[in-house]
Amino acid sequence: MLASRVLTxxxxxxxxxxxLSVHLLGFAGDSVLAQVVPDGTLDxxxxxxxxxxxxxxGIESGxxxxxxxxxxxxxxxxxxxxxxxxxxxxxxxxxxxxASLIDGLIKVNDNASLFIxxxxxxxxxxxxxxxxxxxFVTTTAESIIFANGTKFGAQxxxxxALLTVNIPIGLQYGNAPGSISSNNTxxxxxxxxxxxxxxxxxxxxxxxxxxxxxxISIRASSGNVEIGSxxxxxxxxxxxxxxxWKFDYKDVDNFNDxxxxxxxxxxxxxxxxxxLRGKNIxxxxxxxxxxxxxxxxxxxxxxxYIDLDDSRLFTGDLLPSGQESNETLxxxxxxxxxxxxxxxxxxKDIEIRNGTVISAxxxxxxxxxxxxxxxSKSVGLFGFNDSFPSxxxxxxxxxxxxGGVINIETDQLVVKxxxxxxxxxxxxxxxxxINVEARESILISGTSFSNNAxxxxxxxxxxxxxxxxxxxxxxxxxxxxxxxxxxxVNTPQLSIEDGGEISVSNFGEKDAGNxxxxxxxxxxxxxxxxxxxxxxxxxxxxxxNSNELILRDQASISATADFKGEGNDxxxxxINITADNIVLFDESTISANANLGxxxxxxxxxxxxxxxxxxxxxxxxxxxxxxxxxxxxIKTPDTNSKLETTQQRRSPLAGEEAIxxxxxxxxxxxxxxxxxxxxxxxxxGPFDPLETTTVIADLGVEDSEAPVAExxxxxxxxxxxIEEEPASSITEATAWVVNxxxxxxxxxxxxxxxxxxxxxxx
Length: 762
Prior knowledge:
Elements: H1 2-34, E1 36-38, E2 44-49, E3 52-57, E4 59-61, E5 64-72, E6 78-81, E7 89-94, E8 100-102, E9 105-108, E10 113-117, E11 122-124, E12 129-131, E13 136-139, E14 143-146, E15 151-153, E16 168-172, E17 180-192, E18 203-208, E19 211-220, E20 224-229, E21 235-241, E22 244-251, E23 258-261, E24 264-266, E25 273-284, E26 287-290, E27 297-309, E28 312-316, E29 342-353, E30 357-361, E31 371-382, E32 391-396, E33 406-416, E34 420-425, E35 434-445, E36 447-449, E37 456-458, E38 460-465, E39 487-497, E40 501-506, E41 515-525, E42 529-534, E43 542-551, E44 556-558, E45 574-584, E46 589-591, E47 601-611, H2 615-618, E48 619-620, E49 631-636, E50 643-646, E51 659-660, E52 677-678, E53 719-724, E54 735-738, E55 744-747
Parallel strand pairs: 3-6, 5-7, 6-9, 7-10, 8-11, 9-12, 10-13, 11-17, 13-18, 17-19, 18-20, 19-23, 19-24, 20-25, 23-25, 24-26, 25-27, 26-28, 27-29, 28-30, 29-31, 30-32, 31-33, 32-34, 33-35, 34-38, 35-39, 38-40, 39-41, 40-42, 41-43, 42-44, 43-45, 44-46, 45-47, 46-48, 47-49, 49-53
Antiparallel strand pairs: 1-5, 2-3, 4-5, 14-15, 14-16, 16-21, 21-22, 36-37, 50-53, 51-52, 54-55
């Protein structure tokens, strides 16, 4: 489904780009020849002096200055707007019907902002440069709307605004707005940085029909970079803010496409903001950076589709050393009182692929930045470039700060090929939580290799603290005192396969985080894993609520403290599973084991548990230290006996002192079985209920003298308790099938060699 969507969007994108290029090249020839020509309406004067186009005249109204050109295509020379020092805004319109090719230096006096309005289109050439103290707004709208209702537009009769001292409040678009583009073989730089003696906190805006920016570097320190694409009609709202201008699209119904390739947009600073708004957004091999921000955001919003291909979205800090790491691509800082610098990506369908990294990290503040990804249909993470898998990443560093939250909301989520949604703490910080809400399904599948091919990267949702065997001092050590975050997953259908995982872990001193999964159907296969592990603290808690839980092909659910190496004395965590039907096949396991600490607790509430091995062999809470085994409790509310068993060592069972309730109807004991072993006598037949639930005899199991009341003690061997509540009738499950709805059903089938008597396990 995702692949077909990519193809459709790519075909549309290619056609649009081809038509756009031909169209703009046609205009470019005439524009270059004509260069800068006034249309004679507003007393605009252009003089070529010492290789510079000096623009004077126009009509001044308060702090506004208005110019009008028939053609505005400055070449490699300097184009200099000579304005008075009191001017705050210069409004420039192009009325001749040809696209503008800007291929030289544009200069404005003092801190005035420059607006260029040309409905026919605007092209940035190889030699484009800016020397502007204020903001720079380019638009292919038809007119600029002012607060008193007057308009300044590309039509010659739209001059009613010439005497207004009002501020602009909107951009009125026509039926076929032109495009804004750059198509350069070498990078060009539009630099609003303090190094160029330009005041920080300004806006660079490209507001056109289609917007296609290639090989362009845009730098607006603490400023705002806005890229908007409007198809036809509508009004883009416009308001003055501290970092230049703010735009809103509430009165726009139809959008066009935005494509950014091999480009770098950087608004680093206190309130930097990057905003892209269109129908479809394509970012290829590009970098969007907003570091050191406290209230700014990076926002990509599309009506239909967002494709992030081998690109980077950063917000926040760099690593303490100033160097990037393959494990922790840099990013997000916020002071104690502010949770800012967020990343927001929203569309119908979102693809994050080929090593794209979305990173919001915190190495110096108290509160990290959040990442929010919302898609009404699908979100996909997959693909690998030369260095990285695709990542959505939140990192907190050595400062005791709080990492940001990752929120993903969609119908379908696919995470493949080693891609990860990852929240980490290195040092003393607390990793942020990961919250995933998928209204239809989640698929986590596959692995990939790290860039040095020495480490296998599992696809998954991961929240962790510390780094296992890290050699990078910036990333923390195994004795890190940071805290892992939580992972919360809600979906009707969750599949974890081929090495995929959902995990919370702590490689340092503290506890692993908690992991909660609510899924009607939960399938783990092909070494799929759900993990809560720790080195020295307590293993995290795993809470699963499901109608059907199926583990196959060496899949596992584990809350462990059994990392390799000496000194790993953490305790196993807790696993709480509530599921109508549970199937464990092909060496799949559920475990809360420990190395030198205590085994954890496993509590399973289910109506049906089907295994190929005894439950005691595949559901474990062990410890390598004798006497520190944990507790396994299985609650089966639809049966009417209360049974206990010791898993670790079992004496032979004989005669009237044994009961085996999970036998098949035939004599083949190698088949799948659901085994309860305990007290109360041998059943007369597979279909006969027990005549009493009273404990009448001792099994004689060695070293298991403790009464039931003491089974909660960690001082005893690992114990399995099976607690059932009364029910009207019981039918033993002997097999399972998948029905027409795709649900697993446990069934009871009679065999030709059924025994009328009970089955004694020998």
